[in-house]
Each structure stands twice: as C-alpha cells, then as structure tokens.
Amino acid sequence: MGSKVEHYVHFVWSTLARRQLITTELEQVIHGVLKIKCLEARCQAIAIGGTSDHVHVLASLHPSVSVARLAGIMKGTSSSAVRRGAAPLADFAWQSGYGAFSVGPREREAVERYVTDQKNRHATERVAAQWEAPGDC
C-alpha cells in the first residue's frame, strides 16, 4: 500500500524593511514565479496573497521537500525575477526570515481564505497577529 501525506504549510515573509514595493504588476510576477517554483519542487501553491510589503503562501509540501528548502526556493527565485524582470527593481529584496505555520486538513480552507483575502483584511485591520509577525520577517 502506498503512502498518503497531507502536509500543508502557511508561509509569510516581507520585503526588506517592510518597504511597500509590491505593485499590482510586481504582484503578478511574484505570484506567477511562486506557483511555478512550487510545482517544480513537487509542491503546490494552493493560495497566494499579500499586500504591498509582504506575501502569504499556503502550500502543500511533497514529503521529500523541507519547509526551509521550499521557503528558500520561493524567496530566492521571486526576488531574482523582480530584480531582473521586464521592469527591473534592482534594490528589491525580501527580509532574511520567514514564518511557516503547519496547517491541518480541517483548517486548510480557512487558511486559504485568509491568504487570498489579504488586501481586504489589511484594509479593514482584520488580521491574525500570529500569522502576520513571524519573527524577523
């Protein structure tokens, strides 16, 4: 009999010094890169959201991929894409840390809604503190 693994992680990280650099155009680039890189790592980006200074990703991890590895892949490739893209932003960078929160199958839908509703949540100040202040990120 084969293995069944449901490993969901809610990632969050911000721009360096929480600079508000993520425009609508950059958001499209960042989100596109995150989706592709997750798939290349045999993971799935279930939901991506954020605001002008941070990103949230709810991902399903493949059993062979560590949280740290996927975070590094997502952060590294997305910042490179912004710095080298069609409208390059040479000084774009993410802060060094990130938050990563385990999500059970029962909580997955609620976290997915939380991630995709970021702009509205921040506009109305309805954010979950534990998912918005992950250490130094």
Brief summary:
With 137 residues, the protein is an alpha+beta fold.
Show the helix and strand layout.
Blueprint: E1 8-14, H1 24-40, E2 44-51, E3 54-60, H2 67-84, E4 99-103, H3 108-116, H4 118-123, H5 129-132
Antiparallel strand pairs: 1-3, 1-4, 2-3
Helix pairs in contact: 1-2
Question: Would you give an account of this structure?
Answer:
It is a single chain. Residues 133-137 have low confidence and may be disordered. The chain is an alpha+beta fold and 137 residues long. The protein has a four-stranded antiparallel β-sheet, sandwiched between helices. A hairpin with a 2-residue loop joins strand 2 and strand 3. The protein is built from five helices and four strands.
CATH class: Alpha Beta
Low-confidence stretches: 133-137
Structural category: alpha+beta
Amino- and carboxy-terminal Cα gap: 41 Å
CATH topology: Alpha-Beta Plaits
Secondary-structure element order, as H and E?
A: EHEEHEHHH
What would you call the shape?
globular
- Structural domain count: 1
* Number of strand elements: 4
Helical proportion? 25-40%
The overall pLDDT, averaged over residues, is 87
Instruction: Specify the biggest β-sheet.
Output: 4 strands, antiparallel
Count of DSSP H/I helices: 5
Per CATH, the superfamily is Transposase IS200-like
Across the major sheet, the strand order is: 2-3-1-4
Strand content: 15-25%
Name of the CATH architecture: 2-Layer Sandwich
Radius of gyration: 14 Å
